[in-house]
Sequence to fold (966 residues):
Amino acid sequence: MARTEAIALPRERQGAAWWRTNATALLFMGPAMVLVLVFFLAPVVITFVMSFTDLATSTGLSNWQWIGSANYERMFRSQFWFTILGNTLVYVAIVLAFNVVVGLGVALLSLHVEPKAGGVFRALWLLPRISPSVVYALMWTWAAASPPFGMLNYIVAPFGLEPRFWLQSDPWLIVILINGFVGASFGMLILTSAIKAIPEDLFRAARVDGANVLQIVRRITLPLVKWPILFVLVYQTMSLFASYEYILLTTNGGPGLYGTETWSLWAFHTALANYYGNLDFAYGAAMSAILVLLGLGISIVLLRVFRFGQLVAEPRVEVD
Amino acid sequence: MRVALRGLTKKFGEVVGVHELDLEIRSGEFVALLGPSGCGKTTTLLMVAGIYRPTSGQIFFGDRRIDHLLPKERGIGMVFQSYALYPHMTVAENIGFPLELRRSVSNEERERRVREAAALVQVDALLDRRPAQLSGGQQQRVALARALVKRPDILLLDEPLSNLDARLRHEMRGEIKRLQKEVGITAIFVTHDQLEALTMADRVALMRDGVLQAYATPTELYARPVNQFVAEFIGTPPMNFFAADLAPRNGSLVARTEGIELALPAGPRGAKAPPTATVGIRPEHLAIVAPGQGEASGEVYVVEPMGREQIVDVQVGERRLRVIAPPGFVAKIGERVGLRFAPEQLHLFDPASGARLA
Amino acid sequence: MATVAERAPGSGRWPSLVPYVVLALGTLPIALLYAWLLYSSFFLRVEGFTPIGPFTLENWRFLWDPLSVPELRNRPPIIPLTINTFIFATVTSLVGVLISSMAGYAFSRLRFKGRRMMLGGVLLLHSFPSVTLLIALFVVLRTLGLYDKLAGVILVQTAFALPFGIWIMKGFFDNVPWDLEMSALVDGAGRLRTWWRIMLPLVKPGLLALTVLLFVEGWNQFLLPFVFMPSGSQQTLSTLVRGILGEGRFVDYGLLTAVGLYYIAPVLALFVFAQDQLMRIYAGGVKG
Fold:
């Protein structure tokens, strides 16, 4: 006991000691903390707070009022909310399936062929992700353009399909393809590195045991990348619910009233880009709040289930 | 500079790394912290360096208490196990780095001192190279120069030889010892290799599980180990141990167990002799003699020629004793032999506590 | 990783060709889209895959003669827009890398109150879809007087990049041996100098990769400038392309592809040079 007291040195008064321990960290963390506070944490809070007000272009930033849960009631009384929810679920489900299946397929195949060729294929699949969204959308808009321009018509012609303006006639197909090809690269990257991490001896052993390629994939590879696949599924689900950039750039929710409108796009249209000029921030915030909750919930699941404990090893230097 | 550790304790959560360590190091002394991995020796060194903060206890350099100071305020130089040379800097920049951080040292003086330090460890021809272009031994020397260039009061070395191959290790062992004496600096080095500790250090602090076991000169550690752990850890091949019953005979003591009967020259003095003890004898203090002679007899179990000598394992009853035999010794496995114990070299330990009895 | 010889069944030629064919067919749409973008910009009219008319540089005239391009008449000329985009991408990536490498170092090497919790927060935000915050950010920027200003969009973009950047940089710092850090501290450096003189040079590959990645993200960014910078003078290339594309009437695909190619070219160049690093950083940092 006497020793424990003895360590409290003259220089180390309580406040000074705290300062000494945390000042360096504050210096390094400060800028990041400020930006995250102002542009992440504050907006999360504001989204929820705002959803209980009537803040809109008409009220301005100063004349708004609390209106309780009116925005939420309005949302679920809207004649479109069910259509939009349905759109969203269909969109998320189909694009998710496309992303994961294609991502896994590209990962498996590109690792199966010559390493050089595999690398080229993976690079090609990554192209959509690193391209500006407007240019990528432009390419698909053109591919789906009306005859005689669009490439799609020439591709399906041999199968006896009539030329058409796909963006109008089959908007969902385009929305799914454009998002599917972008999103597949996510699963491809994660699963490629997961498969690469499997010890080579397992494959050698399986081959010695007489397994063929399909058996190896089914009995060795897939079970071992089960967690990464689950991770991709959960992560992509969340980002698909929240994303609307490519829909905005192609169909913009059309054709017609809410033809391909999803929940996040609905919020965007309501609050930031509607045709009536009165931007309904609070109403849009209520729509967003649901997505923010979903995002936070899934993020916490990801954090808890996938990888936290092992990531926070304590630093080995006790110098401030 | 004298170094004193007083009741030094380090806990990592619930785990005790170092427990109530007291150690005095005289000015200019070369002290080894020796012990198996996880014994707390590196933790101790890092507390002296200021990298770890002690949970309790005090560290003095001279008369000044320093355990609240930052590493840079302590006047220490340190050589790391991996040498920790900065890969993006040349040898000269590496050695000059500690001086670069001191405003009071001018550029010219820095250059001069870098040259001096490099010459001291004979790397002055390599100043423009990068660490990756150096051999292990050269990297070691550069690390030494970097540790010494700011003329520290204390030099700390963490497993300085473990990354070198056997031949280089031998060479650097002598080199570091010579350098330490030449500079006259107080030095502490950490090692798990008892041979390094015995050959290089003035005094060796042997630790186990965070607790100091012995602090003595290499000769003392070897000749009069204070407990069974020390006896076991120091010396290769390790000491032989066996349990024996003690019984008085003709005013002195006899240790007896299956196949062995030893007259002890001086039993545990003063106190009443315990009924049993652990007897220890080093392989070099046993000699193989003709069957029927000596204090024990057994069969040759295996022979390992080492060039200068041979290590012979002899099965005596249920136990096996290791003996060093001269190179000329020839024996077949299973051959019956006698064993002669050097009577002055027997060690007795308490079977329960491991403490030395005589 | 597996070598081909060991993984391929190796029983005859036919089966070993199948994966190539499947991959090639699957990748064909992507290849066709980019191929079209390239050659469409050099013909006045392309129907499907067939160019109509001769090879021409007419589509590229926006580079030297902005006023004679009807679609661009009411828009700022391309060069100031390019400069805006470049400033946006450069500033967001440099500031983002600086702040990420500071916080990443702190998380990797410093002990401080709340470290565990804050690290959890970084990971949480890392997977959180920041795009859902746009509406609230509108209010934040308005309140701060940063709405419709390049600076405001830069701050938002930088903040959005931080959880990913901090996480990546922490990973790179984690890989630097502790001995080097301890050595610098014993040699007399403080934490700030250790970070600047020892640690940063040692994570240079990470810094470069993150810089390139954040530059590309900034260069490509569409939604933030579109929503938060609506007036013309400070538009970026993305809002220009979207502007022409979104007008909804007859679209001059020749011109649009030329502008698009002009816009995408730096990204493709960077991708060719830094492809391996980008792939690794995407895979390691789980950037969706």
